[in-house]
Amino acid sequence: MGNCLVAQSGGPTAVINASLAGVVRANQLNPVYDRVLGGLHGIEGTLAGKLFDLTDLSGRDLEILRQTPSSALGTCRYKLKRRNDADFLRLVEVMDDHDIDTLFYIGGNDSMDTVDALAEWAAENAPGKRFIGIPKTVDNDLVPVDHCPGFPSAAKVACQITHATRLDYDAYTRPEVFVLEVMGRDAGWLAASCCATGDVDLLVLPEVDFDKDAFLNEVRAKFDEQGECYIVVSEGAHYADGTYLSAGESANDGFAHAVLGGAAQTLKQMIVDAGIVPRGVVQDLSRAARSSNFAQSLVDVTEAYELGMSAHMRSADPAFTGQVVGIRRDEAAAAEGRYNARFFAAPASEFANQVRRFPAEWILPNYQGVTEEALAYFRPLIEGEPKLVMEGGLPVTLPAFNRR
Amino acid sequence: MGNCLVAQSGGPTAVINASLAGVVRANQLNPVYDRVLGGLHGIEGTLAGKLFDLTDLSGRDLEILRQTPSSALGTCRYKLKRRNDADFLRLVEVMDDHDIDTLFYIGGNDSMDTVDALAEWAAENAPGKRFIGIPKTVDNDLVPVDHCPGFPSAAKVACQITHATRLDYDAYTRPEVFVLEVMGRDAGWLAASCCATGDVDLLVLPEVDFDKDAFLNEVRAKFDEQGECYIVVSEGAHYADGTYLSAGESANDGFAHAVLGGAAQTLKQMIVDAGIVPRGVVQDLSRAARSSNFAQSLVDVTEAYELGMSAHMRSADPAFTGQVVGIRRDEAAAAEGRYNARFFAAPASEFANQVRRFPAEWILPNYQGVTEEALAYFRPLIEGEPKLVMEGGLPVTLPAFNRR
């Protein structure tokens, strides 16, 4: 019986550790592998041989790991490139050193591409070595899944803060605009999800080239109509020429270091400069949305855990490699107004290097938000709250393995 | 039997509506007043005669009101000034029109000054009209209380996000600084509370004049020692000459409109410009901390509710005017390691126009955070979570009265 390795890559999420816990727990229920080793700091630490033995984590530790945000193994921004034989050979060397035949790689589209490349390469150069992908990303931009673990919890935090800050904004009478910025460089899923609370007046997504005049007209109309305007913008919103809003309008004035604002700040300033209102409030959720374990979605943390289990269980088949596990929505249940997840596996090549953008047909024209179909997509994902283990008023977390 | 009026003033909090619910519920338990009327948009709407009858809100509505953030009656930035006889006369006119003899005013130090001024003025000019204060503020800067409703919940959110973003930060290896900014213009209570999680490396408070060189030395030391540095800064942090950090270092370059950053952004840029690390991450909690009902502290929401009840109950004594209710910590219990609140009332003049700063003796030198005494002060306040009524994965809220 050989060992397996699990590593985490890319940006942390509120539930990426639940997938890790799922792999470890599945192996305790059915010890397909002798040891479950964690690679520290993603592929970077793994290549350096930095491993942590997770095999015998207690049930209590695994329960706490499920509610611990961020990547407990640590992550990295280092990407394994296709045809980087040196890195591939070094990885296999580390695997051989530790009697590892299988790598579970938890990450986004880049990581799924790495799984694909490694599996392809191994077929010829390292027979018996297997590479399996477990997706995660708050951006929700992976194909061909219904959604990606991490996104629902980020959406839940974003929705909670949208509603709370909208009520805060509504308490005032004076004319000011409110702009909330959320993560999402290439895809606007997270920004769009904020519409689930019914609080968003205008929505600016990366999927629609930004048109300043058209946008300002809509802002004016909202103020004329209701005396206020609550806007959500995705960090990746951009003009037709590709320039990000977050680059700032004064980016070319020679004082680039002074241009500090993000997309929300740019929009606020644009609205003030247009004389629509004299002031505004900007709120940037930034990392507070992606790692907020105190607002995990029960659907999300359960699915993330079960995806980890599913990947482990499927790997009992020795031919299972170059595959990624994922979630599809049970369409029959959805037709009846119920939500149900279906787990599946598909070749990593289907996941690799593609960006699933927020569907054009779900976007209302003129920054007016999203369609009912979009809301029906979002709503079940943010349902339910896990019963968190609390101490001193805060969710208990497990110390990160990379910091021990 | 006359009526009473309740109004909310200043910045919203996560539990200011719990105090409102407490007044309404107390009157249902013992109808000292015939009607409980809410003044919309603080004193501004009240002067305009915009009232909403709260007397018969259902038990269910009051339960939801307790978990609804922001000011359900609306708020305003309009301040009643001392010796503004026109406003005072108009207020008494509105009170007379609606047979109101008592005003409960929920607000911060300015509002408590208003209560004092109104009571003093009424003694001579409007006998029988009474003015009673119920404190709230996330800034926690009121004397002579132990703490102020709204602060504990804001501190709890700040602590939760501090810990979550610290874990997120810890997941990476590359050299970058992390700076979290929280509210607190004149007092650093909220920033200091973030230290309760044990995650803060350096703390920058308004109570200590900012010394750039000394600060950068500490940042360097942290990176030398541990390769990372997690900083919390209060929005009101300033240099010895009173200039706010949030004013930006380039504020005088003639391009003031391009200076968009807050205190955190300024610190990050300062550290990068000093060549300590090439980059950094900034997170500004801004309004997400003060109105986040999804993370109410049980201690806080209970005390806010009970302060509302206490104010109502004490007002059964016709001589009760010009007073503010507040909370003191039971020192005997504290000596035994337990937390217990004691409710008291004191003349509004004791609360008015003073700022209670974070105690100098609780601040460690060289931006190293706070003492154990400070942590012992914070910890009981963020304890416990109310059982929230949820729907669709979000806390249910009551539609604001000012928007109906």
Automatic annotation (TrEMBL), chains A, B:
Biochemical pathway: Carbohydrate degradation; glycolysis; D-glyceraldehyde 3-phosphate and glycerone phosphate from D-glucose: step 3/4
Active site: 139
Known regulation of activity: Non-allosteric.
Coiled-coil region list: none
Gene Ontology terms, MF aspect: 6-phosphofructokinase activity; diphosphate-fructose-6-phosphate 1-phosphotransferase activity; metal ion binding
Residues engaged in binding Mg(2+): 109
Keyword Kinase: yes
EC nos: 2.7.1.90
Function, in words: Catalyzes the phosphorylation of D-fructose 6-phosphate, the first committing step of glycolysis. Uses inorganic phosphate (PPi) as phosphoryl donor instead of ATP like common ATP-dependent phosphofructokinases (ATP-PFKs), which renders the reaction reversible, and can thus function both in glycolysis and gluconeogenesis. Consistently, PPi-PFK can replace the enzymes of both the forward (ATP-PFK) and reverse (fructose-bisphosphatase (FBPase)) reactions.
Name used for this protein in its record: Pyrophosphate--fructose 6-phosphate 1-phosphotransferase
Gene from which the chain derives: pfp
